[in-house]
TrEMBL record:
One of its GO terms (cellular component) is Golgi membrane. Belongs to the nucleotide-sugar transporter family. SLC35B subfamily. Keywords: Membrane, Transmembrane, Transmembrane helix, Transport. It is a multi-pass membrane protein. This is Adenosine 3'-phospho 5'-phosphosulfate transporter 2. GO terms for molecular function: 3'-phosphoadenosine 5'-phosphosulfate transmembrane transporter activity. The chain crosses the membrane at residues 66-84, 96-119, 131-152, 158-175, 182-200, 206-227, 247-270, 282-302, 309-331, 337-354. It comes from the Eukaryota. Its main location: membrane. The lineage of its organism: Eukaryota, Metazoa, Chordata, Craniata, Vertebrata. It is found in: Membrane. It comes from Aegithalos caudatus (Long-tailed tit).
Amino acid sequence: EKQAEDNNSIECSKAGTMDLKFASSRKYISISVPSKSQAMSPHIKSVDDVVVLGMNLSKFNKPTQFFICVSGVFMFYLIYGYLQELIFSVEGFKPFGWYLTLVQFGFYSIFGLIELQLIQDKRRRIPGKTYMIIAFLTVGTMGLSNTSLGYLNYPTQVIFKCCKLIPVMIGGVFIQGKRYNIVDVSAALCMSLGLIWFTLADSTVAPNFNLTGVILISLALCADAVIGNVQEKAMKLHNGSNSEMVLYSYSIGFVYILFGLTCTSGLSPAVTFCSKHPVQTYGYAFLFSLTGYFGISFVLALIKIFGALLAVTVTTGRKAMTIVLSFLFFAKPFTLQYVWSGLLVVLGIFLNVYSKNMDKIKLPSLLGLWKKSVEERKSRTLSQTV
């Protein structure tokens, strides 16, 4: 028996495992020790960790997370929209929307690299092929959107972008297999109808439509509708961080745009124009990119925590507020149709928030109100009879 135990110990040492033999039983428990390369890093973040600009939102409850994300989206993107319209108000800059997108993507890549160096876990979790698709969609939504401002006025461009709520829902059905209830569908219809009504009012009061601009912003709308669902699916499947998403998607997109501008000979005229107006172009573009980067970080956090549909609802409300500020800071004609269409959008936002909290918010149904009124009539009739 002693010799057999010695043989067993020799075999265990050769296999690199520790076997425990129980008396006469022939069952063994094998415990393997992983190598150093297979050991898990102590800096790997939890699946539930959501870090935005160095702030860990997972420490807060859901309502606080929602308030922080919405506040960040509204604050930074309102400044972002103002600077975007201010850049295109520079005389002669309208043909260079793609170059502005190139500069914007360059700044985003630098900001993402800096933020990624400040966090402990620097690994790339999402596959490169997925980032190539996301980068292509990002180039489409931002590049076409910026370029459309050379053909459309700013409120019209924003209104078109706000109508992406229904495409996002359709994309959620086909890409992620989601199912939406009647309240979500009603919210999307209210918001889209209100924004379309706003567009009709704008075309009546201050028509500035161009077929090229409409095509560009429509293509940007389609890409924008898809990208939220793709980002949500990739971030939840691979647990990617916001800084990682921004760095790789915008750096790959920068290469796409640079290659396109070089092939179409659109790079040299843009560089020449911007070198003559460095403050109004590069200076504003830096602030424009900085506020946009902070805003996209909060949008990605919204997507990761609450989903693409709620994130689009928040950004749509922000765009409505951007339109209001655009009328305040830049001279434009006004009509009451803007007010009614805006109220319809607010109704859509309320319906969407209600659909997310149906278990907490109990609104009376039409059938319940009818039964209640019938019971009150019966009780009133009975009291009169008595």
